[in-house]
Design brief:
The protein has 20 helices and no strands. The chain has about 400 residues and is an all-alpha fold.
């Protein structure tokens, strides 16, 4: 009986999805309201509201006041953060100069107003991407309830922007390849999330989008040089050892990362072994992506595979970056009209709650949930690529 409930998931009805999403959204609202009851730009625990947004706003402030040289020097940036918002902790900036073009206007507004504008803009971009994938009201409601949304809101992070760009770019790929390429090219502000994009576009023969993305990246690089000088790129490359130390030495705790590399380090593996395991996972993810994108299968399944493989391919990914997972869930849900594979609905439900429990499981139990869950869901998505038109199991309409 229990096995059947898990295999077919008849309990996963639209009404229950809506009700559980409502409860989660209500909890997020309460948490956000509580966070705003502190003094000034701090929450009641004395931490900056938006945490990571401190570095985004401070970098913008530095650019506006002619301190671009300090951005890639951790000691100087820490001093600027403290002066700008009285930050008690250091929030690192490890993005390439292309990201400067995105955050540059932020300090034109006071910190909290800027944070609100940043998050609302990103949230709108993320939600419209979900709507392009599965245009239903329940999609947006479940998308708001997705736990990585709360993580992004509470950290003031850019995961809405990265997910919105990926979702929009892939959704437009066949109908508007130039626009798709531009959206995917802008993802160069966070290049670790786009490692497999060139391979997927090439394997699928999407050369117009590929060219548009390449030209977009080149123009963004040229714009940074024109605005801030070539020195900013030299400073970025000079700062890469610090970013590498954050990953390798636990300057950011390993349980916060969600990669194969971090999982290996969390379990005591050496840096060399962790990189070797990550390399195996990255190569496998790349191979699966190329295999899927060369096949004549639904684009939605290919897109889901690319997103899931991308989560496995990079060593540098944190739990709020799992906002991308919402795209894969939506794409896999969108192809269930012809039938539902056994275990597929349960896997999607587990993936939905993954961002909520990934960090606690890694921290308190030493369980690297994200690579395991992403790999399992990737397997199910690949099964879609080899499936006949009539899938086994009940239709999605019948089980709704």
């Amino acid at each position: 009986m229990l096995l059947s409930l898990l295999r077919d998931a008849p309990w996963l009805t639209p009404r229950r999805v809506r009700d559980y999403a409502t409860l989660l959204i209500a909890a997020y609202v309460l948490a956000i309201v509580w966070g705003l009851t502190g003094a000034g730009t701090s929450d009641p625990n004395g931490k900056p509201i938006g945490t990571d947004f401190v570095s985004f706003w401070t970098v913008s402030d530095a650019l506006l006041h002619g301190h671009a040289a300090a951005i890639y020097q951790p000691e100087k940036l820490a001093a600027l953060e403290h002066a700008a918002v009285n930050a008690p902790l250091f929030f690192a900036w490890s993005y390439p100069p292309i990201a400067l073009l995105i955050v540059a206007p932020l300090a034109l507004l006071p910190y909290l107003w800027s944070l609100a504008a940043w998050l609302l803009f990103g949230l709108a971009l993320y939600l419209q991407a979900l709507w392009r994938i599965l245009p239903r009201g329940l999609t947006l409601w479940a998308g708001l309830a997705f736990p990585a949304v709360f993580l992004t809101l509470s950290h003031g992070q850019n995961a809405f922007l990265s997910a919105g760009l990926v979702g929009t770019g892939l959704a437009l790929l066949t109908a508007q390849p130039i626009a798709a390429g531009i959206a995917l090219g802008v993802l160069a502000f966070k290049p670790q999330l786009g490692l497999l994009l060139p391979l997927a576009l090439a394997a699928g023969g999407h050369w117009r989008a590929f060219t548009a993305a390449a030209v977009t990246v080149a123009l963004l690089v040229a714009a940074t040089i024109a605005l801030y000088g070539v020195e900013v790129w030299r400073a970025f490359f000079a700062a890469l050892p610090f970013s590498r130390a954050m990953l390798e030495q636990g300057l950011v705790p390993f349980f916060k990362f969600q990669s194969i590399f971090a999982a290996a380090r969390l379990d005591g593996a050496s840096v060399g072994l962790a990189y070797a395991l990550q390399a195996v996972g990255s190569i496998a993810a790349a191979a699966v992506t190329c295999w899927a994108w060369r096949r004549a299968t639904p684009q939605a399944a290919k897109n889901a595979i690319l997103v899931l493989a991308s989560l496995l391919a990079t060593p540098f990914i944190l739990d709020y970056d799992l906002t991308l997972l919402a795209l894969a869930i939506a794409w896999l849900a969108s192809v269930q009209g012809d039938g539902v594979w056994p275990w597929e609905r349960t896997a999607l439900a587990i993936a939905f709650f993954l961002p909520l429990c990934a960090r606690p499981l890694a921290d308190f139990a030493g369980i690297p949930a994200t690579p395991l869950a992403a790999a399992a869901l990737l397997f199910l998505a690949c099964r879609r690529c080899g499936a006949p038109a009539a899938l086994p199991g009940q239709s999605a309409a019948a089980t709704a």
